[in-house]
Design brief:
Arc Repressor Mutant, subunit A, DNA-binding, three-stranded antiparallel sheet, 11 helices, elongated, 3 domains, homodimer, Enolase-like, domain 1, 44% helix, 353 residues, alpha+beta
DNA sequence: GTTAGCACTCGTAGTTTAAGAGTGCTAACA
DNA sequence: TGTTAGCACTCTTAAACTACGAGTGCTAAC
């Protein structure tokens, strides 16, 4: 793992050469030789001079040669250098963003799937997105309704207007009156309470007052717990995992398989995205190079993550996974665009599910 | 495409040799030579004799040689022959089925994901399952509740106890009385109606009686339409797609990529599974070999599909995709086991979502 | 500090070679 | 007539060899 403090300072020429070398490698994926750089560089320096500089850069740890007689490729530290550089400058340019079209669908799920797919198609990398999670949610409204002889449906609305329902099967008929009473009890007791506030005391008190309908109360509580647990079964949607095997450096059978399996299983991705929120930079975008991501199967990849915020207390994470030589500039731009699109799409529209 | 009528009849010895050849190929994945078969066969026939028989079988179209000096491999017709054979006999044996454990979760979605994963792990092939769909559904119960100043939630219960809800935002406050009236109107008008029965006439009549709350009625109708449309966004859950690239005959870069992409996109799978229900055999299990599946990306695969039935009018489809030389016997057994497990798991438990 | 020149290294791609597996055919045998 | 041994032939695969080109490091000269 590279620490920024450990990175040697570069004079102007080395800086230029390093950036050029990395750019060239990002484009071609081929090791870059001294002659290539010499031609790329506007100063007419001979390849021999460049060779000396490259030798220095290699010693410093910014670049390395895959074998003796190939050119040089960036090390993880080299990539880190490059990314740090463009993170600084990228705001200035803001090159013509492709506008992504997000159809305004009612279902959050569909929007997320669409976003993740759009991103994957546009970037040609693998993408992932978590469904938005609400923190510090509260119960807003509960209603029981009998819709069949021995069946109730419990409707639970949470603060973020998340609606949950649960079918409850009964052993006996309930009078309309009983249902009204239960509704009253449930609402007066639970409304406005957060997960933490619904403790054993509250539960005991409710059961006490429920006069023989403990089972129903307990079923409703299950459903309430479910609504709170929305976070726990946070979904991760992915797309374009197969894009990755197009990059030769990731196509090695074993590593490719592990990568694809990670995208199929999603558990690891979920954990990673959840952790990613811990160390946010100012704009919520962060780049993980190689082992920085701490995900075993992505040691040979870079991951760019962003946080999106739907405004009503709901936020989630987006990630783009590509080879280390991914086109960081365009990925950063894409993510920024998506971020703002998501924000605006839902600014006035708080529906969910 | 092979038609059973076109398959030449085989004498006993050819039958035995063909079955043996295919079994050997299924196990090893290597072309089978005459010497191998000679040793495998209990009758002491020389390889030369076998060669003659194989030559005949090749002429008939049951087997083919990948190149001159390799052994023979089954043709699609050969596989078809084999599958037809074991479909007949497999019921007799019923070898010790592995019991799959289906945890009884509340959410259908989780069950399906678990099933598809279990199957994939057990068979080492790729698996897919559609969520159960209900045909001929009707509206059973509708309820509007105000849970916030200007927000209603419409709760719709369908015949299969599928529950849908939709949040409706209002421009004005509604009195409790108005809501009761609307509830009455909605229930008296819509209850018991199927998708087809809710036509323009019914809608017009409702709007007429809704006295200025047309917007709400129309929103509710949207939600109802949604509930009916459950079928349209039938989900397909998949697992183990990466298993496929372990089989050399499928690992060729281009074809493997198409396969994996099919499993990522799922649209094609969905269509295939929906069509599969058209031509059911008696026990709901069907085997598609090669181009029989009509799915472009699976020309080199075999697909075994089964229908599962949850009893309350809900049914869906399972599919297992593997190389043509998949272990049909164990796949058929696994599917049968899962089928019965699914049936029994939900026999007394009609919850959904 | 820069550059030209040169020997050297190493990976890639193409060719050659040898080995092995399997076939088809022929002729002999029961 | 069915079965078998034998043999020449084909074809794939892997290993060994070759030639080539790209790139380097070093030295010596500018």
């Amino acid at each position: 793992m590279v620490r920024v403090e450990d990175m040697p300072v570069l004079d102007e020429r080395k800086h230029k050469i390093l950036m050029l070398l990395i750019q060239s490698y990002l484009e071609t994926g081929e090791p870059v030789g001294s002659r290539t750089l010499s031609k790329l560089l506007e100063d007419n320096l001979s390849s021999a001079t460049i060779r000396n500089e490259m030798s220095d850069l290699e010693e410093m740890g910014y670049i390395m040669s895959p074998h003796t007689s190939a050119g040089r490729i960036p090390s993880d530290m080299g990539y880190r250098f490059y990314v740090n550089e463009i993170m600084n400058e990228s705001d200035k340019k803001c090159n013509e963003m492709q506008a992504f079209v997000i159809e305004k669908t009612e279902k959050m799920e569909k929007v997320l799937k669409q976003v993740v797919k759009t991103l994957a198609v546009n970037t040609n990398y693998a993408t992932m997105i978590t469904s938005p999670s609400t923190s510090g949610n509260r119960v807003k409204f509960i209603q029981l309704s009998a819709f069949d002889e021995k069946k109730l449906v419990a409707l639970i609305v949470m603060d973020g207007n998340i609606v949950k329902n649960k079918v409850i099967e009964l052993n006996e008929d309930l009078t309309q009156e009983t249902i009204l009473k239960l509704n009253l009890l449930l609402n007066t007791t639970l409304n406005g309470l957060s997960r933490e506030q619904i403790n054993l005391g509250v539960i005991a008190k409710m059961k006490e007052q429920s006069e023989g309908y403990q089972q129903i109360v307990s079923d409703v509580l299950d459903a309430v717990a479910d609504a709170f647990n929305e976070d726990d079964d946070l979904e991760v949607y992915t797309s374009g995992a197969t894009n990755l095997i197009k990059y030769p450096e990731l196509a090695a059978p074993e590593s490719a398989e592990r990568l694809l399996m990670a995208f199929e299983d999603k558990q690891e991705l979920k954990e990673f995205l959840e952790e990613a929120k811990e160390d946010l930079s100012d704009d919520g975008i962060k780049v993980y190079i190689g082992d920085e991501s701490q995900v075993q199967s992505m040691q040979d990849c870079s991951v760019v993550t962003a946080t999106y915020d739907l405004g009503n207390g709901m936020s989630g994470h987006i990630g783009i996974v590509g080879p280390k030589r991914m086109d960081y500039k365009s990925v950063l731009d894409s993510l920024k665009t998506i971020k703002s699109q998501l924000d605006s799409t839902f600014s006035g529209d708080k529906k969910k599910k």
